[in-house]
Amino acid sequence: MKLTEAQSDRAVGAIVGTAVADALGAHYEFDRPRLGADEKAQMLGGGLGPFAPGEWTDDTTMAWCILDAARGLDLRTEEGLTAVAHNFRTWAESDPKDIGNQTARVLDTAGPAPTAAQLQHVAEKLHEMTGHTGGNGSLMRTAPVPLRYLGDRAAVAEAAAAVSALTHWDEHARSGCALWSLAIEHAVMHGELDVRSGLSHLSPAEATFWTEKLDEAETEPPSTFNPNGWVVTALQAAWSSIAQTPATGPEHYVEALNTAIRIGNDTDTVAAIAGGLLGARWGASAIPADWRALSHGYPGIPGDALATLALDAVAAGRAR
Fold first, then answer.
1. DSSP string covering 227-295
2. According to CATH, what is the number of the domain 5-318?
3. Alpha-carbon span 173 to 26, nearest angstrom
């Protein structure tokens, strides 16, 4: 079935919304500076990179690595996951301005041109050794995953967990990516914000865990979820910002991002996570044109090129 114009706009919004939000949050990362209660976030660049105004960080770069593979390959297969692994490794060798510690450790250990199986083996062994592979680094990049599987929610959940496991073996990381990816799929297809729509695709234990965490995100002040380097608090911070910012229309995209960035700590990542779902709900047309015009990043492309890639991934999925 062909997507409607509104659904296509929302599919593009999931990716462009991630990239723009990521670049917006970069300036405020780790509270340098902290966005004040009465301030509005601006596209200023800087941050850890330092990044140019509108330049996305490793969050969107890794999302691009997944999106590029999803245009032609099934992310549930060894071939598709290996393509993602190769893209990750190529980027890691390009002297990136920023890369997460856990991601860097897994990629360095796996060596050049790792297969998906090799990368997942390293991630699993790291988890066995440390018990701590639940950083936010796989959730931040998950927005492209559902685009190839729109209308097939079981496939969304399977692919999201598999892509997470390339670097983040932790069960909460895998289930959190599945939950958020399913929320994006639901938003694209139905124009609704419903993170709980994916709970039935998780194990009973993970569904219970995330139900409690979503309850907290909807009732506790967004500022509660700082620090947010853990996948759980990152998801809570993003969802709290969305759920507790009044949704009066497409301007919800901007206002919820302001809420997300005001939380502080890992602002580019929380904004990127929130921006993917907000873009999937309100569409690329809701994203300020001046922010879109500035958007750019690895591998040397303008932000609007992501729109074409997003539609390519959708088309590849619809042709299955």
1. S--BHHHHHHHHHHHHHTS---STTHHHHHHHHHHHH-SSHHHHHHHHHHHHHHHH-GGGS-HHHHHH-
2. 1.10.4080.10
3. 22
Residues 58 and 96 sit within 8 Å (Cβ to Cβ): yes
Spell 17-52 as b/e; 16+ CB within 10 A means b: bbbbbbbbbbbbbeeeeebeeeeebebbbbbebebe
- Cα separation, 75 vs 81, whole angstroms: 5
Retrieve residue 67's tokens.
């999106």
Residues 6+ away with beta carbon under 8 Å from 126: 102, 105, 106, 109, 133, 169
Does the pTM surpass 0.70? The reply is yes
Q: pLDDT 10s digit of each residue in the chain, 320 long?
A: 799 999 999 999 999 999 999 999 999 999 989 999 999 999 999 999 999 999 999 999 999 999 999 999 999 999 999 999 999 999 999 999 999 999 999 999 999 999 999 999 999 999 999 999 999 999 999 999 999 999 999 999 999 999 999 999 999 999 999 999 999 999 999 999 999 999 999 999 999 999 999 999 999 999 999 999 999 999 999 999 999 999 889 999 999 999 999 999 999 999 999 999 999 999 999 999 999 999 999 999 999 999 999 999 999 998 77
Would you kindly state where each structural domain of the chain is located, as residue ranges?
A: 5-318
**Which of 160, 185, 187 has its CA nearest to residue 171?**
160
Separation between Cα atoms, residue 201 and residue 195, nearest integer Å? 12
